[in-house]
Request: fold
Amino acid sequence: MHSNQIRIRLNYGLIIATNQLDLLTRKATPLILAIAVALAVACASGVSTEPLAPTAVVPSATTPTQVSARTAASPPVSVISIDAESLGARAFKYTESLAIDLAPRMSATDHELRSAEFLRDRMAELGYESELQNFEFDYLNQEGDFIHLIGLAESSMNARMIRGSSPGTEEGLLVNIGLGRIQDIPADGLNGAIAFALRGEIPFETKAQNAASAGAAAIIVANSYPDPISAAFSREFEFLAVSVSGLDGDKLRQRIDGGQATVRLDVTPEVLPSRNIVATNRGVSGDIVILGAHFDTVPGSPGAVDNASGVAIVLTIAEEIAGLNLPYELRFVFFGSEELGLFGSQHYLNSLTPEEASRVSLMINLDAVGAGQLELHGDSELVAAAQDIADDLDISVRRGVIPANSSSDHAPFEAAGIPVLMLFGSDFSQIHTPLDAMDTVEPDTLGAASALVVAGLFGGFGGVTSMDKPN
Reply:
């Protein structure tokens, strides 16, 4: 059980050191701020305070599997960057690797697996405990070759499942019931037949109910225009129902008029394989913070904004803070099969023991961050804290609204009572299309999100950092 209050318990030495630096850092440049925070971390954790040049190397866009890295054997890092421009440039390079070299990354495919292995290996190079978390899930495609014409040359026909109807497999004689009104039903009923109806005059749902009442096993509804159509019932209905285009409807009607036509409707879930990547930085307290982003794409899209951008930001943050001790356990999770229905994040949440889940203080989700104004969504206290951090770093950010009929990987955690913060960009115009390519990605947005999260991880989301305004 979690309250809405964020429970990051910071190392006491860090609190003292950062408060002593408060006046300096609030007037300082981002570079001085970075050094100040790093010194505070060093004072609290025992990391050497000798100034070292940052050793992170920008990844190559052409050879993603040969990215230079800080490894666990590298010297401890004393300087972290809250320089949004620098972080944005590095995140942009990672975005290129994901959206060009590793594209496509379609959900639950070998392409997704290839990208997962790259992410696992990159996080291991950075010194984190990194592993693939394989899982399977049942997926019901809403469109496919659902109609099989028995004994005819055309073996199958494309159809769309009517939302709210039930999947299944049914076979029977195809019977034309016109507009699907009660007076259109044969007097002797349908008795296990597959009903065929035309769109128009009464709702799809009423057509289906009339057919079911007459004993039909399922219904096919054809559009009144040549194009396909998507339809939905107002409530769940235990009856198999699909729609077809007007052109395919004409073909079915011709088969019926030419004699008996037997069809089989086969609308059943597939079992698909996918995977998450989980990388861990062990902390000194029992609290857990999850920083996540999904790495899969829809078919046909390079997925630069959605969501190479979010993954790139997580990689950049992981690279920047590698080797530093944190006062909590930080888990980086790259989620698979988000585009098919948040399957990766739901599986990861389900994989946590009740004891682990009770220790999760917050979940930060980065999705489609690469274009437009940086926006925030989630727990009200987290959003307010993030806005304060943005003000101190001179970053433009605003509270946003997730588009209707959309969701992302924070949702399962939010439903479980875990405080969440989602960062995203305001421009969704090209996502899920072939145009979601690198020319849509804005380094400034990547940098703003990276800097905000780095600052938040070092206490800003807990309400006690050198960036806090004095009482």
In short: Residues 84-101 form the longest helix (18 residues).
